[in-house]
């Protein structure tokens, strides 16, 4: 559940404050940070919220906003997250746990990638086909995917897929450190596989103008990779803010800055994918084949449409 949704349930603690004085050891406030109790008491004295029932407080956006402002001033990030955990339990909202689904999905995708790569190599050997640059780049892609998969499994073991407030500060810091590593590996693999496809185009299509366009696309693809590294290593100083910045009062600004870069990057990759789908079509349509055969060949090269659709859906959801 999104963090904004969690803010809606913070107000529940206010309802418990009145009984906390008489039942301090049993109250849900017993483990709540002192600063959060102060915020609750302050808002409870406001007539606008004093008459709200528990369910209303759990779903009141104005109350959530007011509570969030107070917590940002009076509480640390850890105290805020502890309070979210307490109020989540008070509102009956179960913890989010997507660890298993992430693990299964990543394992299935990784296994399919290895199988298809193995089939490619076996076909090359059995048919005695020439080894090309595209084959080398594909091999490098798989070599990068292996540590990517391993790092992802380590992140899942340390709490990726769980709500932040249910894991320790040390786990959060480690996950953010590994996130930097996995982003570098992911984009490297993405650039390599695109380069492999483009080099394959160079191998099978002889048209001179087409080859120039493909080579320019290869350069542009490489520049995306270079641009990402410049962003990663020079946007935030000191570099440790990538994994420690969340603990600061303005840590969210660091994450927002990263998002402002990654979303355009995802958009550029989406446009590049569409462009790479169009490129071979310009050559295939002009081939001297019957229409039926021509459409069959084009359909083979159009399998990537599914990848583009998936990427566009992910881009849309990330932009919401």
Automatic annotation (TrEMBL):
<feature type="signal peptide">
    <location>
        <begin position="1"/>
        <end position="22"/>
    </location>
</feature>
<keyword id="KW-0812">Transmembrane</keyword>
<keyword id="KW-0336">GPI-anchor</keyword>
<comment type="similarity">
    <text>Belongs to the RBT5 family.</text>
</comment>
<feature type="transmembrane region" description="Helical">
    <location>
        <begin position="297"/>
        <end position="315"/>
    </location>
</feature>
<feature type="transmembrane region" description="Helical">
    <location>
        <begin position="140"/>
        <end position="160"/>
    </location>
</feature>
<keyword id="KW-0964">Secreted</keyword>
<keyword id="KW-1133">Transmembrane helix</keyword>
<keyword id="KW-0732">Signal</keyword>
<dbReference type="GO" id="GO:0005576">
    <property type="term" value="C:extracellular region"/>
</dbReference>
<dbReference type="InterPro" id="IPR052337">
    <property type="entry name" value="SAT4-like"/>
</dbReference>
<feature type="domain" description="Rhodopsin">
    <location>
        <begin position="119"/>
        <end position="317"/>
    </location>
</feature>
<keyword id="KW-0325">Glycoprotein</keyword>
<dbReference type="GO" id="GO:0098552">
    <property type="term" value="C:side of membrane"/>
</dbReference>
<feature type="transmembrane region" description="Helical">
    <location>
        <begin position="172"/>
        <end position="205"/>
    </location>
</feature>
<keyword id="KW-0449">Lipoprotein</keyword>
<dbReference type="Pfam" id="PF05730">
    <property type="entry name" value="CFEM"/>
</dbReference>
<feature type="domain" description="CFEM">
    <location>
        <begin position="29"/>
        <end position="91"/>
    </location>
</feature>
<feature type="transmembrane region" description="Helical">
    <location>
        <begin position="212"/>
        <end position="236"/>
    </location>
</feature>
<feature type="transmembrane region" description="Helical">
    <location>
        <begin position="102"/>
        <end position="119"/>
    </location>
</feature>
<comment type="similarity">
    <text>Belongs to the SAT4 family.</text>
</comment>
<dbReference type="Pfam" id="PF20684">
    <property type="entry name" value="Fung_rhodopsin"/>
</dbReference>
<keyword id="KW-0472">Membrane</keyword>
<feature type="transmembrane region" description="Helical">
    <location>
        <begin position="261"/>
        <end position="285"/>
    </location>
</feature>
<protein>
    <submittedName>
        <fullName>Integral membrane protein</fullName>
    </submittedName>
</protein>
<dbReference type="InterPro" id="IPR008427">
    <property type="entry name" value="Extracellular_membr_CFEM_dom"/>
</dbReference>
<keyword id="KW-1015">Disulfide bond</keyword>
<dbReference type="InterPro" id="IPR049326">
    <property type="entry name" value="Rhodopsin_dom_fungi"/>
</dbReference>
């Amino acid at each position: 559940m999104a963090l904004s949704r969690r803010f809606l349930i913070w107000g529940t603690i206010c309802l418990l404050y009145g009984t906390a004085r008489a039942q301090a050891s049993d109250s849900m406030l017993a483990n709540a940070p002192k600063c959060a109790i102060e915020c609750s008491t302050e808002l409870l004295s406001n007539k606008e919220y004093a008459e709200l029932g528990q369910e209303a407080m759990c779903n009141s956006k104005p109350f959530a906003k007011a509570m969030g402002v107070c917590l940002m001033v009076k509480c640390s990030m850890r105290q805020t997250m502890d309070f979210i955990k307490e109020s989540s339990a008070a509102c009956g909202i179960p913890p989010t746990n997507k660890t298993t689904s992430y693990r299964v999905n990543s394992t299935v995708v990784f296994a399919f990638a290895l199988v298809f790569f193995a089939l490619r190599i076996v076909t090359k050997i059995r048919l005695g086909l020439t080894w090309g640059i595209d084959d080398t780049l594909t091999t490098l892609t798989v070599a990068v995917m292996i540590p990517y998969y391993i790092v992802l499994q380590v992140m899942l073991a340390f709490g990726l897929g769980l709500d932040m407030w249910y894991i320790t500060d040390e786990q959060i810091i480690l996950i953010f450190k590994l996130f930097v590593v996995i982003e570098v590996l992911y984009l490297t693999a993405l650039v390599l596989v695109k380069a492999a496809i483009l080099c394959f185009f160079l191998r099978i299509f002889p048209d001179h103008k087409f080859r120039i366009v493909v080579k320019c696309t290869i350069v542009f693809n490489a520049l995306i990779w270079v641009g990402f590294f410049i962003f990663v290593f020079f946007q935030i100083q000191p570099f440790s803010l990538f994994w420690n910045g969340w603990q600061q009062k303005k840590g969210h600004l660091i994450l927002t800055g990263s998002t402002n870069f990654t979303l355009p990057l995802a958009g550029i990759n989406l446009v590049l994918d569409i462009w790479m789908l169009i490129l071979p079509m310009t050559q295939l349509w002009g081939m001297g084949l019957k229409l039926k055969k021509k459409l069959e060949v084009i359909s083979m090269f159009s399998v990537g449409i599914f990848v583009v659709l998936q990427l566009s859906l992910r881009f849309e959801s990330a932009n919401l």
